[in-house]
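so my prof wants the structure for this chain in the C-alpha cells format not the other one, which i didnt know existed until like an hour ago. anyway here's the sequence
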Amino acid sequence: EELVCGTAVSCGVDVVKAGFASTPTTEMAVVFEEADGGIILTASHNPKQWNALKLLNEKGEFLNAAEGAAILECAENEDFCFADVDSLGVIEEKDFTDAHLDAVMALPTVDAEAVRNAHFKVALDAVNSVGGIIMPRLLERLGVECVCVNCEPTGEFAHNPEPLPANLAELSEAVVANKADLGISVDPDVDRLALICEDGKPFGEEYTLVSVADYLLSRIYDEALNTGKSIEEVAAPYSMTTSSNLSSSRALRDVTEQYGGDYHAAAVGEVNVTTRMKECGALIGGEGNGGVIYPALHYGRDAMVGVALFLTNLAYRKMKVSELRRTYPEYVIAKNKIELSDNSLIDRILEAVKAEYAAEDVNTVDGVKISFESRKEWVHLRRSNTEPIIRIYAEAADQKAADSLAQQIISIARRIIG
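here's what i got, hopefully its the right format
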C-alpha cells in the first residue's frame, strides 16, 4: 500500500485510501469520489502470496482488453514522469463501507423489513479477510443473527480462500451445530458468494446467481401480471435478459426462459460478462463461481447485494434453503484440465473437437463450446491465460453423464497429444 500510494503521489496523483475495503466497495468508491480510476490490492480468491494489483477505470469497472493494452504500452515505453516538488499529490483516508451498504439497502428490490420479520440466523465464513468487516454490518442492518466463523480481518486465511464446497467443511458444521437457516461464504475480495443449506449441504455456487435471477425475474413478471403493465414497462430501463459466461450452468438460461426472458452467453471473465450485459440490457448477470452482477447497483460482482437479494427472496418464499434449491433445474458440472508440454497443441485440439461435433451447436467465442440441445448438455474447452493447459468443463443432469461427456473430449485430445 505504501509503495503504490507513494508512487502515485510522486507522479502528482491525489490518492484516497479506502483501507480494508472489499473489491466491490472499492469499485463503488471510484464512482462516489468521481475518481479517474482505482487500484485494489488483493490476492482475489487465491492464497496470499498472489497478492497484486487489480486496476479499475473511471467507472469503477475492470479494464477491458484495450484499456489494459494501453496501460502496458505506457509502462513499456516509460511514458510517465514524476511531478516536481510543488506538484506532488496528497493522500487522504476514507471509509466507504457504510456508503456501499447504504446503496444496497436503498435498492427497491431489497426488502429489509421482510428479512427482519423472517428472523433468520446465518453462519458466516469470511476467511479472515475484509468480508469479516462488511458482511456482519450488512447482516446487522438486515436484522439477521450472525454466527461468525473466521471473521477476523487478519489476512491469515483459515483455509483455502476459494469458496468451494471442499473448503467449507467448517462452515457446514457451524450451520448444523447452530441450527442456522443458512451458511454464507465469501472469498477475500467479497465478490464471490457461496451458500450452505440449513442441513449443511452446499447450495451450489453455480446456483447463487440462478436464485437471485429467479427472484428478480419473478418480481417483474408478477408486477406486470398484477398491474396490467407490459413486462417491458416494468423492467425498464433493463430487460428480461440475463447473462453469464460460457462455462456457467445452463440453469440460468432455463430459469430465464421460464419467464419469457432471453439468455446471452459471454466469454469467460468478468469484464466480458459486463460488456455483454450492457449490449443486451441485462437485468442481472454474473458468473457461475458465485459472482452476482446487478447493474441497478453497479457493474461488478458483489456478494453484499447477492446476500441482500437472496435473503429477500427467501423471506418472501417462506421455505427452507434446501427446499428453494430443489425448485431449480438440476445440473452437475464436471471440471477437468489437460496439461500440455507444447502450446501449439492447443489449437489442434480445439480444431479437432470442433470438427468432430460440427453437426451440433458450436460456439467459438471463447475456445470451443459444444451444446447438445436435445439432452440439455454441453462441454466447453478453453485455453488457460496463465498455464499451458486446456480447461474442460462439461455439464449434464448427473455426475456420471457429465464425466462421460468430459471423457469423450479428453479422448480426442489424447489422440492429438499422442
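also thought this was worth mentioning. The first strand starts at residue 15 and ends at 17.
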